[in-house]
Design brief:
With about 280 residues, the chain is mainly β. The protein has helices at about 1-30, 90-95, and strands at about 40-45, 55, 60-65, 70-75, 80-85, 100-105, 110-115, 125-130, 135-140, 155-160, 165, 170-180, 185-195, 200-205, 205-210, 220-225, 230-235, 250-255, 260-270, 275-280. It has a single domain (about 1-280), classed as 6 Propeller (Neuraminidase), CATH 2.120.10.
Length: about 280
């Protein structure tokens, strides 16, 4: 047994190094001439499960979502403070067939999460979690399938104005707006141009910052008063694909001014879906 453990201990670092090189090479091949990021934090293997959907922040920590995971990590992206590996509560799984956590957004001690019954789109939910414990608070809201005809893969909170923004998995001209306290529908934000495949985002200084899984995994802003859309940058340059998500997947993002000058922090899953990264970008 001791010999076997010694062999495993020697082989594991070699295997991990090989995986990093192999996936890194594939990711580079698909990335192309991407907009340069300032720094990057990467995970590979089982850690990717908790960091595969979206990221948000309370200014002191990062919060990540996976299909059935929530994770709280310090800003160094190394110290895991809390993880919930069964974040979808049984009552939602049993009563609404909830299977998938998508976009998340932090506000005032809570994590607001978009939760779906996967590609059935019968029960789009906004589920509220305690940001300290990552446990379900017991509060959730079922959203209208007349508006959310293809689920609710993403949401974001504008706590300053008491608004939750959300959409479904189609492309957007109109983004739905809800009262944050009641989740009553209060109108829509009409964009100046269509945005494709939004995965997540954040409100910051009067604008929505949105990460997408469009052809180049682009990042956009939408002015909350005018609806004016601005494309900020592409995350990859591979524009032609016969298979959806060939080359990985662009996920959500968050916004936080950091001491190193970075502001926009985007999450993406690598080519083989066994690694994910948080890229940090400075922006004007």
């Amino acid at each position: 047994m001791t010999l076997l453990l010694n062999i495993i201990n020697k082989l594991f670092p070699m295997l991990l190094s090989f995986m990093l090189m192999f996936t890194g090479g594939l990711n580079d091949a698909f990335n192309g001439e991407i907009y340069a990021y300032d720094s990057i934090d990467e995970v590979i293997g089982i850690e990717t499960l908790a960091r595969s959907q979206d990221v948000t922040t309370d200014g002191t920590n990062w919060y990540y979502s996976g299909k059935n995971y929530l994770e709280k990590v310090s800003l160094d992206n190394e110290t895991v403070l809390k993880i919930n590996m069964e974040a979808i509560p049984a009552e939602l799984s049993e009563n609404y067939n909830s299977q998938h956590i998508g976009g998340i957004s932090y506000y005032n001690g809570y994590i607001y999460a978009a939760v779906e019954d996967s590609k059935q789109w019968n029960h789009p939910l906004v589920v509220v979690y305690d940001a300290d414990t990552l446990e379900f608070t017991g509060t959730f809201y079922e959203m209208s399938t007349e508006r959310h005809t293809r689920g609710i893969p993403w949401l974001l909170v504008d706590g300053e104005n008491g608004i939750l923004y959300a959409g479904d998995s189609s492309n957007y001209i109109d983004i739905f707006m809800y009262d944050l306290e009641t989740m009553e529908y209060i109108g829509k934000l009409t964009c100046s141009e269509e945005i494709r495949k939004i995965q997540g985002g954040e409100y910051y200084n009067g604008k929505l910052y949105l990460g997408t899984n469009d052809m180049t995994r682009a990042v956009y802003t939408v002015d909350c008063k005018t609806g004016e859309v601005e494309k900020l940058f592409d995350r990859i340059m591979y524009e032609y694909k016969l298979i959806d998500n060939l080359g990985g997947e662009g996920e959500g993002l968050t916004v936080l001014p950091m001491s190193d000058g970075t502001l926009i922090h985007t999450l993406q899953v690598g080519t083989l879906f066994i690694d994910s990264s948080l890229r940090h970008y400075s922006w004007k």
